[in-house]
């Protein structure tokens, strides 16, 4: 699908520009749904942020596979996934998922599907930054969410 974009990058992203691409010249879409994930403090007061690692090439391939699965299930006009890597501090943007579809219900479902599968299947490794750095393990709740589809 020519209307899928996958970006893995260190630099921040502009949500307004991403939204604009999803709706640009897209007269058959009645809905654009976006999700933006942020780095949040879920540990202790010494948590400063995250450091994300990935395997270039492999990560993009995994994200494209997730996007293609979504396009097989829903009538998606455009889909854009952006995921940041490297050093990210509290409140930084970490992930963006945007979907445009003819109808809102399928746009919401497709965006949720992409995020649920991304959390389960995308090869990113997260390390907490702070006084006691540690690798973040995958949560069972994330595995359970993806299995519901």
UniProtKB/TrEMBL annotation:
EC numbers: 2.8.1.12
Organism: Neptunomonas phycophila
Alphabetic keyword roster: Molybdenum cofactor biosynthesis
PANTHER family per record: MOLYBDOPTERIN SYNTHASE RELATED
Lipid biosynthesis found in the keyword field: no
Pathway: Cofactor biosynthesis; molybdopterin biosynthesis
Name under which the protein is recorded: Molybdopterin synthase catalytic subunit
InterPro entries associated with the record: MoaE_sf, Mopterin_biosynth_MoaE
Family assignment from sequence similarity: Belongs to the MoaE family.
Catalytic activity: 2 [molybdopterin-synthase sulfur-carrier protein]-C-terminal-Gly-aminoethanethioate + cyclic pyranopterin phosphate + H2O = molybdopterin + 2 [molybdopterin-synthase sulfur-carrier protein]-C-terminal Gly-Gly + 2 H(+)
Assembly mode: Heterotetramer of 2 MoaD subunits and 2 MoaE subunits. Also stable as homodimer. The enzyme changes between these two forms during catalysis.
């Amino acid at each position: 699908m020519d209307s899928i974009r996958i970006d893995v990058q260190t630099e921040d992203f502009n949500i307004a520009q991403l939204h604009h691409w999803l709706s640009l010249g897209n007269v058959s879409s009645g809905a654009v749904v976006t999700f933006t994930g942020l780095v949040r403090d879920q540990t202790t007061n010494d948590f400063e942020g995250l450091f994300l690692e990935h395997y270039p090439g492999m990560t993009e391939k995994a994200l494209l596979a997730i996007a293609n699965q979504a396009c097989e299930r829903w009538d998606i006009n455009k889909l854009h996934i952006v995921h940041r890597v490297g050093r990210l501090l509290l409140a930084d943007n970490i992930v963006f998922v945007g979907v445009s579809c003819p109808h809102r219900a399928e746009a919401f479902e497709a965006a949720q599907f992409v995020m649920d599968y991304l959390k389960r299947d995308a090869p990113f490794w997260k390390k907490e930054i702070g006084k006691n750095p540690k690798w973040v393990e995958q949560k069972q709740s994330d595995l359970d969410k993806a299995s519901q589809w």
